[in-house]
Write a structure and sequence with these properties.
By secondary structure, the protein is mostly beta strands. It has 1 helix and 18 strands. The N terminus is likely disordered.
Length: about 280
């Protein structure tokens, strides 16, 4: 028996880190009171195993005549999609879940890397899949196979109103990511009537792969919830700022062994005597 080894960790999870809007306001002091925590019922999570997800990721179709996928007819009804399997299948009555392959499909996809260093100092390989509407996928957890190797689970959301379906294929350790606060630029100053807080960060990405790679780097600035709290960006490092959410995005193709850095700096001005709360 041949054994294949991998540096991947399927148990680590492949869900993409997602930024939420970062609000800045005032910290309110209050006295704690004892409250009983209501016991919530454990959530039931429905797992969905899709054989076609592995084919989408690797771009290779499985041709196994012994699986039900080769004997399945897809029928579109008014309310849903029905899969008719013209093959007898033995399922043990042991009370356990069993996987049945319904359909194998190969779809075109483009690849790049998503990096959100504030949450995860890792690069996530993303497959952006087109023409996915014709496959009739269901939302749920999916097992992901890349180059015939299991890389973990992700959540598949075909109900999103996008013409491209983004699928996480896991972390790539050959792309090094670091995010650090620049202490020499990050200061707290007391002015005549206001306080000024300066925060500066440096993000560095090194492409350790042997090919040119496209990366998307995301960070954020806080959004003020009060009229007397002012947030001013002093350095975006040529990034694109979404003023509504505060998200900053950099897009670039980096060559093999190339190191790129991005700077992000902003100032928060607020009245003296107040304490900031940055959630």
């Amino acid at each position: 028996m041949k054994i294949s080894c991998s540096t991947g960790n399927p148990t680590q999870g492949n869900n993409l880190p997602q930024l939420t809007t970062w609000y800045v306001g005032y910290y309110n002091y209050y006295y704690e009171r004892d409250y009983k925590k209501a016991e919530s019922a454990p959530a039931v999570e429905d797992d969905m195993t899709l054989s076609e997800v592995g084919q989408i990721a690797s771009g290779a179709a499985v041709k196994d005549l012994n699986t039900a996928a080769n004997y399945t007819t897809q029928v579109q009804t008014i309310a849903n999609v029905q899969f008719d399997i013209d093959l007898k299948y033995n399922i043990p009555s042991d009370g356990k879940g069993h996987i049945v392959s319904l359909k194998s499909q190969t779809l075109p996809s483009d690849y790049n890397y998503l990096i959100v260093p504030k949450l995860e100092q890792s690069a996530f390989l993303i497959a952006r899949i087109t023409n996915w509407e014709e496959v009739n996928l269901l939302p749920g957890n999916a097992n992901i196979y890349f180059d015939n190797t299991y890389v973990g689970k992700t959540y598949l959301d075909p109900l999103a109103l996008n013409d491209t379906l983004s699928l996480s294929l896991g972390r790539d350790k050959s792309i090094e990511v670091k995010r650090k606060m620049l202490s020499e630029k990050s200061t707290d100053k007391i002015l005549s009537t206001n306080n000024k807080k300066t925060m500066a960060f440096e993000i560095s990405v090194r492409n350790g792969k042997s090919i040119t790679t496209e990366i998307i780097v995301m960070d954020q600035i806080p959004i003020s919830q009060n009229n007397d709290i002012k947030v001013e960006v002093t350095d975006l490092g040529k990034g694109e700022l979404d003023e509504l959410s505060g998200f900053v995005t950099w897009r670039k193709k980096i060559k093999s062994k190339e190191l790129v850095t991005y700077n992000l700096e902003f100032e928060i001005t607020y009245p003296k005597g107040q304490t900031l709360s940055m959630n």
